[in-house]
Each structure stands twice: as structure tokens, then as C-alpha cells.
Amino acid sequence: MDILEAIQNRRSIRSFKNQAVPKEILQKILLMGSKAPSGKNRQPWHFLILQDKDKEQLTVLMNKAASEKEKQAENIGSLRISSNAIKESSAVFLVYNSFSKAEQDYNHYRLLMDTQSIGAAIQNIILAAEAFGLGALWICDIFQCHKEISIWFNESEELVAAVAVGYPNQSPSERPRKSLEELVDWRY
To answer: Domains of the chain (ranges plus CATH)?
Structure first.
């Protein structure tokens, strides 16, 4: 599959088949993530890969957070949908920023640079999953329980996102996109 085809065909998958993705494929996907461009070649990403019991524990934490927020009449957005996608997936990659809590002189511009770099790594992971015939879901609902997740997995780094990966159990149609005319201003 060429890169343009992978970009065109990629969809956010929220339902996965009960089928394990071989570790070798997960490693190749992570290797592609590590090849992303990064500002000043900082490579600020760190991945924690969860499967089986640890993945199940993550969904327990997410569902507990959802229940507590619902009791307080707080909006949980798509937290339960994301939790279910994680439960069905073969693996979930927790994505951390290695530097934001470690560097004493960390500032707004480093945060922007590192966040963009981590986003590029996540995009590479998602496109690599597509190339292997897998589905992926970029998840930010984990922010609703990021402290509990970091405590449970003993991670002191800043949690930035999660990516669920597995064999897709759905074929969503393309979501609407803004036209280039809405997005681009040409200056001559």
C-alpha cells in the first residue's frame, strides 16, 4: 500500500475483532512511529504498550472515571466509547511526553514543538497500522482520568494520548472534511 492510499483509506476504528495482532507487527508499527520527524530531533515520545490484563485495567479506570463524572452530572463525552474500543483492541499504546516534566527549563515553545513531534509519531503509527491491514483509534478521552492511569502504571511522564490498535470490525465511511477553500489562503 502506498502512502497516499493509506492516508486516503485510513478511518478511526471504534470496533475491533477479537484477534490478537502479532507482537512482531506491533513492533514494526512502533518502529514507524519512532521514525517520525521531531523538532531538534528531540524524539520526545515514550510508548507504554498494554495488552491483556493491563489493557483491561485501563478500561476499568476509564469506566470508573466515567461513572464518577456521571454522578456529578459532568459531561463524559465519548469516554465510554473509547473505553470499549480499547477493550476490543488487540493492544493500546499509551503515548507520553518524556521531557515536559523532566526538564527544568521546559517552556511553552518546547511544549509546542514536542507536542507536534508526538503527533507526527502518532500519525506514523496510525498509517503503519493501515498499511498492515489494521485499524487504529487516536484517543484523547484518557485525559479524563490521566492521573489515575499514570499512578496505576507508575509513569511520571506526561500522558499525551492513547492509540488502540487491532483488526477492524467495521468499515466506516469517510467523515466530512472542510474544503481546501475553507482551509487555505493563497498569498501572491
So the answer is: 16-169 (3.40.109.10)
